[in-house]
Amino acid sequence: MNIGTKTTVVANEGNVLNYRVLAAQGTYYDLSIEYFTGDDTRSAVVEIFVDGASICQTTLTGSASLVTAIQGGIPLTEGQHTVSVKVISGTVKFSEFQLLVNTPVDSMTVDFENSYDKNVYTAGTWRVKDGVLAMTGDPATGKRLWGD
What is the pLDDT averaged over residues 112-135? Predict the structure, then answer.
């Protein structure tokens, strides 16, 4: 199936997608999953395996358009591995998987009423109401990044 310029893989309950990866270092990784379920009300549950051992189960929330979910903290030793994603329930259309080194970050509290315009990068339409930063527009999409 094609979505714009992307090709997706449709996976149903019981399907398993296997990916061979080469971990440059032994550390924790984050698995970024770009997917959609075709409808905001239809979620899918997937289980993630490394070399045949179950790491976790996660729910991919329903979405009528492409969204990204990140499962963090996947331990890998240096070398070759097989990362598998098994659909436990539902149907999900996968567009992209990325395995990224998990980089710990310090927690931060932001007072949007006072620091709304002190961002490094912004895209999309935003508003602040009662101390909450929210995306507006149709569709409501965007991003804001602080720091490095």
Answer: 65
Counting beta carbons within 10 angstroms of the beta carbon of residue 2, is it exposed (0 to 12), middle (13 to 18) or buried (19 or more)?
A: exposed
3-state helix/strand/coil string of 72-126: EEEEECCEEEEEEEEEEECCEEEEEEEEEECCCCCCCCCCHHHHCCCCCEEEEEE
pLDDT bucket at 120, cuts 50 / 70 / 90? low
Q: What angle do CA 3, 17, 1 make, to 5 degrees?
A: 20
* Cα–Cα nearest to 111, from 139, 130, 137: 130
Tell me the two tokens of residue 64: 């009528």
Query: Is the pLDDT reported for residue 128 higher than 90?
Result: no
Judged by DSSP in three states, 27 sits in: strand
Paired tokens of 23: 């971990």
Measured CA to CA, the distance from residue 117 to residue 111 in angstroms comes to: 11
pTM of the model: 0.70
Number of H helices, E strands in the chain: 1, 13
Residue given tokens 């329903």 in the structure block? 62
pLDDT of residue 136: 75
87 against 123, higher pLDDT: 87
Quote the CA–CA distance of 128 and 109 in Å, as a whole number: 15
